[in-house]
Amino acid sequence: MTDLLSRIRPRRSAAKSPRERTWKHLSPLLRLLILTQLAFNIGFYAVLPFLAAHLGTAIGMAGWMVGFVLGLRTFSQQGLFVVGGSLVDRYGVRPIVLVGCVLRIAGFAWLGYAEQTWAVIGAVLLIGFAAALFSPAVESEVARQAVIWEEEGHGSRTRVLALLSAAGQAGAFVGPLLGALLLAVDFRTACLAGAAVFVLVLAGHIRLMPQHIPGRIRTRQRGGARALLRNRPFLALCCAYGTYLLAYNQLYLALPDEVQRATGSQAALSWLFALSSLLVVCAQMPVTRWAGDRLDLRRSMAWGLLLIAAGFAVVAAARPAEWTGIAGLLPAAGYVVLLTLGQMLVVPAARAWVPDLAEDGRLGLYTGALSSVSGLIVLLGSSATGSLLDLGLPAAVPWLILAAVPALAVALLPHRPGKAESAAGAGAAPER
Question: Any stretches that span the bilayer, and where are they (predicted)?
């Protein structure tokens, strides 16, 4: 009778609404980490969108120096994710998150009072390195807990990771609105408000984050980087994920040029960015549930990359017509919608795949490497894309080339799953 009841209970759970099944069955730790992601992005995006204008006007930096400072921030964050991930494996989640929060508080406070170039650079580097510490810690632990959640029969791990993505996008949407209100006072107020958000996150983690997370293995041995570089399926995943990030980066490179061409200004960009964020907040979970019931991780990423390619193809098909005004914005809006739908398939699947490809005890390293290796691909690819847009090619050609990159990346996706095949269907457990 006990065995019979144990078989029936997961089916009763499956009968509940999908949203209830996801959030209600999350552990307190998972809820803390997902809400942390929301708070991280609110604090971060209350400041970042307004940094370039502050550097150019209030500080009086030249345009090339503004670009250099922003590039340093990206490098100190994305480029050092792999360092932060390895520190998480060695020292655990709690101390790395706490140190990252302290550094982010110090960085925002410093930036608010920085008036010279060297001080701005120091503050920006501190802000970026703080994220390189706490982001791999949060993401790797959410991925590990998502695997446990799946093994307990609650559904696909991608649903948990989709919640993480939706929380991040919600923060990216709310943060600039908060920052715009605070800029009515001054930039320093926005920075101090961002720091205050991280003070709250720090206090919450001091109180709620356990000293030791059950099942989390701390790795003292060296040599993880060498094994990672020999892990061909993981590197293939990084390359495929990097093409997604390169495509996403076109929101800031190719899309502004297209909006400028169609309307004569870039005012519509803010609306297109808001459209992307709202799509993720509202549709991420339904899309992930749909994919989880029908697609495994490889197919989910493949379909996502093909949707992204279709977004570029829409603009390429419309460019010869040279539409302007509202009609000229429609292809750009189509690109944003298809890119965002592809993102909603690619990001949770890629993060869910990492635990299957990582060595035991090295999940932080591999989670950080996914961002760092992909970020390097974006750095190299963005330079090539910028050159491509300046070559004077026929209007549709750059967009067709951009469409080909994610389409061809489908072939890079690993065919063998790694340590454990993740069953993407709801309630399915991985093979042992």
Answer: 29-48, 54-75, 96-113, 119-139, 160-181, 187-208, 229-248, 268-288, 300-320, 332-354, 363-384, 396-413
